[in-house]
């Protein structure tokens, strides 16, 4: 590529650091790798080729500047590297024929009901032949560009364990010849639940990052929302299950609060402390409309109920006006359709507003989620409200030890420091 393909040397992007390059790459990773997998039909080859392209970008972009179309540059460079791999391995003529489409700038005809490489990638990662933890891990790796270490932290497992899961999942896709496509309507309903679960967890990683470098990953959160919208279009062919709308509403109502979630010092701002005038009113309105549509169908599911809880919170002009009785009632329903200690923990937070911190603490202590950071943080807050500052300090310390998110750590440290 000639220097004319790059931003001029006096451009502000020229001379940017490796971290800035990494931010660009991370934002484009899912789009590029999905396109490479579609063209080559080989996850391993696509990842290896993109990895080589990223190394070249880290060498060239700081000097030459970021190309006008970073995703296009990465795709072209990675495609060339992939072809080099195929030639070196002296693959069969058929393989060369399959890769020949790379010389054509016209994308091939889409397979399945929607032309979206990344959504097809999600359906590939969520094939029933793969174990559920592997589905989520592989999606985060390929779609979000997260490192194995970051995914391992999110799952609270050793890095080697997570690496094995991802490797086995890729091998399963290759050996079982799992197709890179969105399934037809006959199979879509069966696969939909797994895809929703993965998109939910992808959004959560974007909403509050599990790694030590970023408070959140807005690119990943926005991609999860975009894919859920695309999935909604696909699901319309099978009657548009309300859980799709429920998940979209849940994401939108959470995303609406993003402008008020991080303080100027980089610490987390909890829901009760947020400046609600900074919330995105358009997202709130869209989320509320989706929730009302779900309620009218009266087919409650986990995502719809979580969205309804968020709707109650975002309906209150001030934290003091929150209808906590309705929140607890919705959590009671959620415990019926999706019983879990995490749901019980969130319900306890609402119970504390109705029945007091001591009642809530007895619920929390019975859950024993000692490896879960929010459990320690919730205990700490309840103990602080009860005046048990020494116990609260230990609980805050335990919460800090279980998270690497910088915004969470800053907020927890500030709360711990306020104990005196």
Automatic annotation (TrEMBL):
Domain RNA polymerase sigma factor 70 region 4 type: 123-173
Keywords: Sigma factor, Transcription, Transcription regulation
Transmembrane intervals: none
Gene Ontology molecular-function annotations: DNA binding; sigma factor activity
InterPro entries given in the database record: DUF6596, RNA_pol_sigma70_r2, RNA_pol_sigma70_r4_t2, RNA_pol_sigma_r2, RNA_pol_sigma_r3/r4-like, WH-like_DNA-bd_sf
GO biological process, one term: DNA-templated transcription initiation
Domain spans labelled RNA polymerase sigma-70 region: 27-90
Claim: Ion transport is one of the keywords in the record: no
Family: Belongs to the sigma-70 factor family. ECF subfamily.
Family annotation (PANTHER family): BLL6612 PROTEIN, BLL6612 PROTEIN-RELATED
Annotated protein name in UniProt: RNA polymerase subunit sigma-24
The organism of origin for this protein: Knoellia flava
Lineage: Bacteria, Bacillati, Actinomycetota, Actinomycetes, Micrococcales
The gene coding this protein: rpoE
